[in-house]
Structure to design on (89 residues):
């Protein structure tokens, strides 16, 4: 499952927040990936797109993972990539 920043919340944020990954705490994408046993493929972009390695949630976080921990890790990986992309602009 490809995950990338966007949507209503991202669209209406001020431009000075454009380099910040913010899903507003929405974690449905994690539940969807777990329920369908598919990896998450983070896709942060800042003019350039960076396709990050897939994250197999069950392999990395175990059989009964904590959704908040997974969310924080996915967001952290995307933010690190987005920060790097921003510095290259």
């Amino acid at each position: 499952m490809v995950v990338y920043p966007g949507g209503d919340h991202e669209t209406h944020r001020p431009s000075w927040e454009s380099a910040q990954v913010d899903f507003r705490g929405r974690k449905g994408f994690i539940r969807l990936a777990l329920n369908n046993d598919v990896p998450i493929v983070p896709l942060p972009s800042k003019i350039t797109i960076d396709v990050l390695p897939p994250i197999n949630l069950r392999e990395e976080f175990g059989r009964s993972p904590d959704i908040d921990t997974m969310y924080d890790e996915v967001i952290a990986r995307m933010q690190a990539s987005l920060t790097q992309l921003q510095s290259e602009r």
Summary: The chain has four helices and four strands. The chain has a mean pLDDT of 82.
